[in-house]
Amino acid sequence: MKLLLSAFSFFLAPALAVTANTKDQYHLRDDDHIGPAMWVFGDEGLKIYSPDGKSLRKSTSAERVCHETSGYRGSTEVTLSCSFYDVVSDGKKFVWAAVSRGSSKIDVFSIDTGDIVGSFETCNTPRDLEYHPLRDEMWVRCLGVTENEVSYMDVFSVQSPTVDSTTRILMSDNTTDNSYGYMAIDNTMGDVGYTTMWGSPFLYKIGLSEKVVLEKFDIELAHGGYELAYSPVNQHIFVRALTCCTCGFEGADLGVDCGRYGTELVNITTGPSAGQNNVDGQCGRCDGSVADTLGVYEFDTNAETFVGKHLMEDGLGGDPFASPDGKYIVMFGRNGGRSVRVLEAGNPGKVSTVAFDIKLDFNTTSVEDDAVFNDFAFIQDGEREMIVLASGNENKLVLIDPKSSNPSTSYISFRDGDISSDGTRRQVEWAVGTNYVWVDGADASEVYIIDVGTKQVVETLTNVNSTKMVFVQNYERTRLQNMITGESGFGSDSSSTERAFGANYEDDNDIDAVGIISLILATVALAVGVVNLVVMKNRKPQSHGQPTSSINTSSKMDEEVSLGSKNVA
Ligand SMILES: *[C@@H]1O[C@H](CO)[C@@H](O)[C@H](O)[C@H]1NC(C)=O
Ligand SMILES: *[C@@H]1O[C@H](CO)[C@@H](O)[C@H](O)[C@H]1NC(C)=O
Ligand SMILES: *[C@@H]1O[C@H](CO)[C@@H](O)[C@H](O)[C@H]1NC(C)=O
Ligand SMILES: *[C@@H]1O[C@H](CO)[C@@H](O)[C@H](O)[C@H]1NC(C)=O
């Protein structure tokens, strides 16, 4: 087969070389291929834009991608729900979207065309998606269960999404309970993963082969566990611990106002009221209160033990988010955005250290005790390393350079006038490999595309109400392109895709169209390598390609290319 293909490729070679020169050579684009692009999901369905936002490559209506749901919170009214809680790409075939509250479907799109491949049955109200490259599986974490499949987690094979396998992963025996929680699933943990449940004080270890809960680890003193961040650097998990607190009376942890959820009788284990039992209060909604003293527990997945915990500078908890390479864990607290804490992952078994606390210059008026960051982007390639945060209380973002010992900050305003964020739900997404960062302003139905090099807004999209923006790139194609342009070490097999996905495409038995094309292209690259090198070395990638410096730093980039601008478990 390989011989045949390489013979074939000699005929194709000249044609392809021409194609690569006359078309968008960097992206291997052709008429039905959308190339690396920002996929914007929301009330209007799916819109796919070029990385600079200047061209709309594809649009699919809400009717085609959202799902009708009824009966949520007792309502019988049927509505189209386009919440798009999580969207994840496998980087080679599909883009997977957890769309609608109250629905048990997951949408799958073609990574190359943006077309919807199908809506597949899964557990109820899918919330969190994680791709496991070695197993080639997409894991789904749901809020509820369905009658057909009593499980809070489900799994799809990326090779054949239509084939459903049965899971029975239950963190609670009472399946009428909602099970808010997140997952950590990664190549470096092998065939186990971890998950949390909002009202349950355990970190659950999941057998990905057995598809059951294997074990659970006590999150001491906590009411539950919630957000998870995972660092492949030390194979540690960072779990946000939730607590109980008093409220509804003078001097209570939360004060006299209990908010919309009212009070129940609770036992307090943390903060100034610790030790009080059967007092008025609430659980799981105490973030930022004086009882929020557990913060983030750090769990060593090798030794299967907690090694320490982390608080914000003010001694209260924060939510953890990992950089794509897992080197940093960024913690957001409830402080209006005054500061963030950045941890640096240490050695396996050792508690991670505080890299720095950074004071930020955001307007905290009327949000002093609120979370204003809900998302961030981590720009990591070649020589650059930058944390990008945008406050939900101001139309401004900050660029933080984490590399120096005294990290510098710079600010970019992207809109005059009213705050355009939909509450604190401001999204930030990096168009990986480019200078463009996308920030949404859903309350004004806007999206801003900011060049972090020139610090200018290059484009403002209007009439786009986004709930999820994800940069999608077919890394398999990019790898081939890089081979042709000789950028990632010509003929070397240390490709970004294999590093990023741990997948070995050559061993793939299922030789599909892409597989065949890749074989052809690989041999073409070898056969006409010299020609390509001569012709293409002079052609620098376009502005929306990887930075030109990548030619010198390709091996570093290979290691750092990831599926996105963050690694939110
Ligand atoms: C299960 O959970 C529901 C809703 O939280 C609750 O009303 C019910 O009493 C629970 N049942 C059991 C057996 O705990
Ligand atoms: C609080 O603690 C008491 C024992 O001191 C126990 O009987 C009760 O069930 C606990 N309440 C809750 C809500 O856990
Ligand atoms: C800060 O935010 C408050 C509340 O949104 C607003 O009234 C005030 O004008 C803002 N201040 C500045 C300097 O932008
Ligand atoms: C955009 O969507 C958000 C969340 O669904 C909503 O709160 C907001 O009002 C919407 N904005 C517009 C202009 O439709």
From TrEMBL:
Q: Where do transmembrane segments lie in this chain?
A: 513-535
Q: Which residues form the signal peptide?
A: 1-17
Q: Where is this region: Disordered?
A: 540-569
Transmembrane listed as a keyword: yes
Q: Which domain of life is it from?
A: Eukaryota
Tell me the InterPro entries matching this sequence. Answer: WD40/YVTN_repeat-like_dom_sf
Sorted UniProt keywords = Membrane, Signal, Transmembrane, Transmembrane helix
Query: What Gene3D superfamilies would the database entry show?
Result: YVTN repeat-like/Quinoprotein amine dehydrogenase
**Per the record, where are the segments of Polar residues compositional bias?**
543-555
Per its record, how is this protein called by name? Iron starvation induced protein
Is DNA-binding one of the keywords? Answer: no
